[in-house]
Amino acid sequence: MDYNYVRKKSAEVVIECNVKSFPINCFDILKHYGYKIYTYSELYAKNKELHDMCLSYSEDAFRSGSMKIIAYNDRKPKTRIHFSLMHELGHDILGHKNDTPENEDEANFFANNMLAPRIAIYYAKLKTVSEVAKLFDISSSASCYTAQDFSRWCEEVCNSGMHDYDRDLYSHFYNAEYNGFVYSIKKCEFCGANIYNSDSKYCINGCQPIEISIHRYPRLDSLSSDDCEILSRLENKWLYDF
Question: How far apart are CA 82 and CA 105, in angstroms?
């Protein structure tokens, strides 16, 4: 498999669909490419024969490229559904014509990179498989696979430098208001302001309820040059030691 080619194609989809925060909305992405989406339960109610055909083809999802239809098994866990949907999109984006083992592997790799781009893992400074699963809302098995490939990605970056598709992703996720790479955007539940790269439900603009205590992180421009250099060294060390 050409890993970099598949990563590049997934990066192009992320940018084209204007994904700005994780976890991604798989349904919006499929609609962007003109797909009509049905659940297996809907198919069963409308056309049992069609439902049985889809289910016999796959317990997870079925795609008709010519008809621009994707159906998925809504009885599966949410994380598996999202992976299956991006897997089917991968077949489309990668131009697969047959269900060969190689094509299945490529579609799996595409889905994994769509759900959790490696550069986003890096800037989120995730340390464990469970952290990867939580941020990107993927299964533990998908997170283990992601972590293994992240190590390969890190080695490639260390040896050969950033890939063009990673630079494109960085530019796409760079946020001038935050002054950095933004992988998560939420709305403050109290005032509606944007919250960047935080698990908190409330922003730090002084609007949070009094019982909520939020640690205020210093802005990067308030740090000394020595502090910035130390942070840079720690970040590089983290990259090597993941």
Answer: 17
